[in-house]
Design brief:
Length: 301
Amino acid sequence: MSLDEFRTLVARHARPDTTTPIEGLQVAKVERPAQPSASMSGTVLALIAQGAKRLALGDRVYEYRAGQYLIASVDLPVTGHFVGASPEHPALGIGLTLQPDAIAELLLRAGPGDLPRPGTGALPGIAVSDAPAEMLDAAVRLLRLLDQPRDRTVLAPLVIREILWRLITGPQGGIVRQLGLADSSLTHVARAVRWIRDNYRRPFRVEDVAQLAGMSASAFYRNFQAVTAMSPIQFQKQIRLQEARLLLATHPTDVARVGHRVGYDSASQFSREYRRQFGVPPSQDAARLRDAAGPVTVTLP
């Protein structure tokens, strides 16, 4: 059965840094439960071989388990953790980075009638589905190539294209296809997401970011909310707080300066919003981060 072999191969090839010799492929193994941690999702396919992971984006919560995949079509601020992982029953899975150029090439090669007619409006930036047998089979063949260095360079890109095709033609194909379309609603929202991430310290008017994204203010707000499950201002706040937490891990005694550095003029507002996001005030969280032995870093969304 593909899922059994998939699980065996992931367990064998998992490394602490999750990287592999195949570009864009990561293999993850988590042996202990951890507190939910904030990260950026990346544009990725995450396929679970064993265990389960829970992920929150804005007010949406996703859970996916063995034989299911999560697709993220925009690099979004998420909070997640593996559920019930243990040394006896570790969570196992792979992550595959989605490249818009590769998706665009497959869309161009598709014949008439091969793909559903595109809908209107933006789709969510994250979705979960059951992995079809064909996708699991391709994932197994991709992992087998880790043991076949002579064949890997030539065959791995072909198998990755097959996996992308299964995504494009699958139940979440609309989300994936938008990645390869230069003028999709997702592309416009992704442009705004990148701008906010790069300029998260700066205040902005939604109308100005909408203009940068090439949309009217009303269409931009509606599509941004559909993709990210947040308003643009809420999105900026998530980025600021995530960055603040990273800074506090290395500067635990400089809370006020960290808040100012990520864009907060008011120390009390920074403390209030930080506590709402992470459950404790920044000073207490900084002490916890300093004393911790070190979180498990897993790049699989």
